[in-house]
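User: Here's a chain of 696 residues. Predict its fold as tokens.
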Amino acid sequence: MSKLVIVESPAKAKTIKKYLGKDFEVLASNGHIRDLPKSKFGVDVDNGFAPEYIAIKGKETLVKSLVKEAKKSERVYLATDPDREGEAISWHLAHLLSLDLDDANRVTFNEITKSGVKEGMSSPRPIDRDLVNAQQARRILDRIVGYKLSPFLWRKVRKGLSAGRVQSVAVRLIVDREEEIRAFKPEEYWTIDALLLSSRSKKPFAAKLHSKSAKKLEIKNGDEARTVMSELEGKDFIVADVKKSVRKKNPDPPFTTSTLTQEASKRLGFQSRRTMSAAQQLYEGVDVEGYGAVGLITYMRTDSLRISAEAISEAASFIGGAYGSEYLPSSPRAYKSRKAAQDAHEAIRPTMPSLTPEKAKASLSSDQYKLYKLIWERFIASQMASAVLDAVSVKISAGDYTFTASGFTVRFDGFTKIYESAKDEGEDEEKASALPEMEKGEKLAVRSVTPNQHFTQPPPRFTEASLIKMLEENGIGRPSTYAPTITTIISRAYVEREAKSLKPTALGEVTTKLMAEQFADIVDADFTANMEQRLDEVEEGRTDWIKTLDGFYQSFAATLQTAEKNMEGTRVKVPEEETDVVCDKCGRNMVIKMGRFGKFLACPGFPECRNTKKIVQETGGVCPVCGKKVLAKKSQKGRTFHGCEGYPECTFITWDKPLAEKCPQCGAGLFQKTGRGAKIHCLKEGCGYERPIEKQ
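Assistant: Prediction complete.
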């Protein structure tokens, strides 16, 4: 008889089977196998919040096959993911397969490698009931909020709406930021910049006006700027002070789930769902030439910065061999996790530091390669020596005024040889720039002194990266919830993307205002963070999960009852966005509405006028077949493609991005192909023009 190992995904099953051999059968549950019913509440509030679990629809055959395999197996191991959800899936499997819940049949793998699987299989344990109860409490809390609050929103705002603990707070953050932007009043200010030249250099350098008579100077308007300029006229620019120092720049720690999704957004342009999908594939295992099926990274849902001693040693060995001993720090680097972090898993790192991205590239998809490269470089850099910079700061006097200039050169590149983190939007990249040699008392030649007008800027809208950062900093959600939360609030039309920014829709603003008035706790960041802490306490065995649920439910039920009374007979109208598209049937300006398949144009004269139109998004491109406009369109899976506006007469479509640039050979519009084989090319039949994309 063979032993049975049950994991969550077929890819993971394939990788683990390779390491366990012929004495083991490895099968996949394909995620959750049981859940609360969709058709009813499914929680008995009056009897200890007892959940009514049922087999997920469509998995009946899978359940039967797992039961059959378990009965004929010598032993069953439950090897689902090493987190709350994974523990709960194992618990559900144990119930379905009639396994003893006190038996040591639960195994976990932090990495899907030979050593990781061997280590996991060598130390089976009973299912962690505290971990399961924490997941059950979270699931039931979400069911209470969603099932009880959503119908209220249907009646008071619009049918089909939903609410959720974490998603409602995320929308609130985005709405609050939008209100800040609207309320922002720009303030004028001026800077004065000088371009100066030392006698020892032919290259001028920039200096900024900093102070007057040793007091920091703020120039508020043009009149003040003109006054300063008149007082600077004819003044000698003299070097007042030169300070030289040696500065160390330390590497960032390896990735957590939050920092990985942030960096992949900023550096690769990945949405969080895309990042987590590629990370899941890298964790579960990929067939790599020369290695076979192997997990390339450790578990990707973590907020810990802990690194195993073995991984640190392997990284040091690789760094010393590849770059030299001078690139190793004097002692191995360890990073401290934030206070609320769970330390069950290591930080996200490559399972084999010696497997460079270039070695694996041929075996990986484009997304897998880009993400593996990011994770590998960040981890290796985190174990490298600091960069050493020679920094210079100069003060330059011009009468009563003082200008400042600073620069640095790299004495030793250290970790920056392979990696530096991307900067946040609006944050200046630190670039190496050297100042010329100068001495105190030296007179500088003045190339120009220029006053520049500026206005203060409103806070930027959230991007996926900055929203995830905010959620983490406020203790809202956990590593497993960041990507699904953003996906949910966009799919439910509370938020929309505008380029990389997240912007609330009219529906999102109206719903959030209603929630803030009637269900203040649900959209309160502190309340939600405190609830996360209570769930953590359940996981740690310090708090009873049923008492946690009861404490929430009693208050929530009373709030819901009050809201029903407050809004009896009231319905909130969602403002419609008017466009400049004129209805060709009645002449009114059409408005944007949301339907099952997204936004569309509708006549505001409904029901007298029922005219509707698709929203057309022009690209600036020209069809290479008929010369008409090329429009951006969405596939059924939401992917953007491009097609001729003359459809169905003209059937031209392409995934390539239309460009406004014309083909130098035939004059048709050019298109840009991305991914593997990226290029700019002409799609007009018989032309054949193409060129590589120039690197910026």
